[in-house]
Amino acid sequence: YDRLIAICWPLRYSTIPTNLRMLLIIAGIWSLVVLLEIFPVIFAARLPYCSSREVQSCCCEHSPVYKLARTDTSFNRQLGTAKTLTALLGPLTFIIFTYAIVVVAVTRIASISQRWKAFHTCLTHLLLVLLYYMPVMLAYVLGNLRLIQNFDLYTAVLTVSVTIPPMLNPIIY
Predict the structure, then answer these.
(1) SS in 3 state form for the chain?
(2) Where does the sequence pass through the membrane (predicted)?
(3) Mean pLDDT, residues 43-68
């Protein structure tokens, strides 16, 4: 959103992303996250559990918890898949859409040096997006296809994918 405004409407950059608009965007995103997380928790809480209470994960995620239930969990699995796809593909779709608009706007800039400056502004962010999304999506696909059988390996891939990008953020920027 920031780069879209900075590149497509540079003269209005100081007036478009106001504190109120940013607060509304942040409140909307947090509301969506809460809604995405509350339903799996409610449905997992309703399941009958009597087997092991040891969760095979480094954090108490939905999937490892509902797998401990002693009943049919196909609805929970579908809900978890829908939640994960929404949480991953929603922001990624927004990022790709905004960068498509940015690329079109940048190609209309006459000066090559200004094009390079605009692309350089976006390149660092795109690098971090790829560093985050590629391992997470790879782990999700490999986990769903049951190609990763080792829980420790799966946990390590997910942990690295959510730890490395924030660590690299100050270095890249």
Answers:
(1) CHHHHHHHCHHHCCCCCCHHHHHHHHHHHHHHHHHHHHHHHHHHHCCCECCCCCCCCCCCCHHHHHCCECCCCHHHHHHHHHHHHHHHHHHHHHHHHHHHHHHHHHHCCCCHHHHHHHHHHHHHHHHHHHHHHHHHHHHHHHHHCCCCCCHHHHHHHHHHHHHHHHHHHHHHC
(2) 22-45, 85-106, 118-141, 153-172
(3) 75
